[in-house]
């Protein structure tokens, strides 16, 4: 790839994977973004989270309201942060330098990478359950391997996890082009499985009427706190994408393509998928007397090898789909940004999934309280960074970045030796306000709104600090005079 600049970029800030993508090489259409989002929202964790709302005592209508509100907030934040990626062809780790400085940017980038790798670990373990279900159909005694424990897990679970890990590595090895084509068929495949289970649920409940007539059991005085905590939790599942969506929209053929594609793929498909989850989980209440939010456990209830095999295969593909795009692409760019001289996208992607194994998700995955707490903390931690990034692009820079300035160690984005202390003060304030309810009992009610508080406080504090310092706002135009290979 060749990129034209007037000035020599610093080798510690530049390599081909971080460079602006020329317009002629941006070939992702609205269909690519639609199918990518299908793959990301149609996954086991999203399914379980939507289904678990029934387990919390919500009615089907209340659960759908949570999903709709979360989707409206998500698509608004994602659209806002998508524009700069499409405009400049740059990934998140480069764009964030404008707010935090070329050295300071490493802090939010590494936090985001850590969160994404954590989610890779969670999704990989959830998907490996589907692998185990398929293997159990063809290998007698597979379940008995669970009695052999190693590293705190049954041997069958570890083998399933290892197989699933190798599948991820295979997809990653050929970079973004393989990921794009994989997503084209992975997302729609899961819809077929979901629709089959919806038909079963309607049949088991003798119609949709009984499903939507199941009353809520959640006490009224707990409803709104649970409602907004659930909204924050659903946002937390995709909180990393709010930040690193430029990693994907930098390939967009036009702003129109990314806007339309994401509108079809995120709010429409996620609401549809959540509706299927709510209907299916409500159907299990009628069919089995209890809500079953885990799709793998639901498949095993059918006792039919063909149903289990096809269902588990669909879940496996769905989980790889979301894991690669949402949880490997982002840290791959992040780690490359940290060591651009030594790493590229593929190497960093493999390093990310190796680190993901160290989270040992089998040791705590089934603890629902821990998962909910972690999801909330993720939203609260990343929210301020999203608020700062959006405020910087639209209100401080007036939608104009000096592209060359993002790759050099002097100029507007140098701040104080590469660090912008005002951005860090705003981020800390946002995180403290977002998470204070988790640590101060008298303020516990605030924790339900952690993501919203984090975004709002981070953005407002950043704008106030930047304007108080009388930071100059300029418009920049890159005049290409030099060709860098």
Automatic annotation (TrEMBL):
Keywords: Membrane, Transmembrane, Transmembrane helix. It comes from the Bacteria. Its main location: membrane. Coiled coil: none annotated. The chain crosses the membrane at residues 36-56, 63-80, 100-120, 132-152, 158-175, 182-203, 223-243, 264-288, 308-333, 345-365, 371-396, 423-440, 446-465. The keyword Membrane applies. It is a multi-pass membrane protein. The keyword rRNA-binding does not apply. It is found in: Membrane. Belongs to the purine-cytosine permease (2.A.39) family. This is NCS1 family nucleobase:cation symporter-1.
């Amino acid at each position: 790839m060749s990129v034209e600049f007037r000035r020599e970029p610093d080798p510690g800030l530049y390599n081909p994977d971080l460079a602006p993508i020329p317009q002629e090489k941006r070939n992702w259409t609205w269909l690519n973004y639609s199918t990518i989002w299908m793959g990301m929202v149609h996954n086991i964790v999203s399914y379980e989270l939507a289904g678990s709302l029934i387990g919390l005592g919500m009615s089907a209508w209340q659960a759908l309201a949570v999903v709709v509100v979360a989707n409206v907030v998500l698509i608004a934040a994602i659209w806002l942060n998508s524009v700069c990626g499409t405009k400049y062809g740059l990934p998140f780790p480069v764009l964030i330098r404008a707010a935090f400085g070329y050295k300071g940017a490493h802090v939010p980038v590494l936090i985001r990478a850590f969160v994404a790798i954590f989610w890779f670990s969670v999704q990989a373990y959830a998907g490996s359950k589907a692998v185990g279900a398929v293997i159990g159909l063809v290998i007698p005694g597979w379940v008995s391997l669970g009695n052999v424990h190693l590293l705190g897990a049954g041997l069958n679970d570890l083998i399933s996890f290892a197989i699933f890990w190798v599948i991820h590595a295979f997809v990653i090895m050929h970079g973004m082009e393989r990921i794009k084509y994989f997503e084209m068929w992975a997302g729609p495949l899961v819809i077929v499985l979901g629709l089959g289970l919806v038909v079963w649920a309607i049949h088991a409940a003798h119609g949709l009427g009984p499903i939507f007539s199941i009353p809520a059991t959640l006490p009224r005085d707990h409803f709104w706190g649970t409602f907004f905590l659930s909204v924050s939790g659903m946002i937390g599942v995709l909180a990393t994408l709010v930040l690193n969506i430029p990693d994907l929209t930098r390939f967009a053929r036009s702003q129109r393509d990314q806007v339309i594609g994401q509108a079809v793929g995120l709010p429409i498909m996620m609401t549809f998928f959540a509706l299927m989850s709510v209907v299916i989980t409500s159907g299990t209440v009628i069919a089995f007397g209890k809500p079953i939010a885990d799709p793998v456990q639901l498949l095993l209830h059918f006792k039919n090898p063909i149903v289990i095999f096809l269902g588990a295969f669909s879940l496996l593909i769905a989980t790889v789909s979301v894991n690669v795009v949402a949880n490997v692409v982002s840290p791959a760019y992040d780690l490359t940004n940290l060591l651009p001289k030594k790493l590229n996208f593929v190497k960093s992607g493999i390093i990310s999934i190796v680190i993901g194994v160290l989270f040992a998700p089998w040791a705590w995955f089934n603890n629902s309280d821990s998962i909910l707490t972690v999801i909330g903390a993720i939203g609260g931690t990343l929210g301020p960074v999203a608020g700062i990034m959006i405020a910087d692009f639209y209100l401080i820079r007036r939608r104009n970045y000096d592209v060359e300035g993002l790759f050099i160690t002097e100029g507007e984005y140098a701040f104080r030796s590469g660090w912008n202390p005002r951005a860090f003060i705003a981020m800390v304030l946002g995180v403290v306000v977002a998470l204070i309810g988790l640590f101060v009992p008298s303020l516990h009610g605030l924790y339900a709104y952690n993501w919203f508080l984090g975004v709002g406080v981070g953005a407002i504090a950043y704008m106030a600090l930047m304007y108080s310092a009388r930071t100059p706002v300029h418009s920049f135009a890159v005049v290409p005079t030099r060709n860098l290979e």
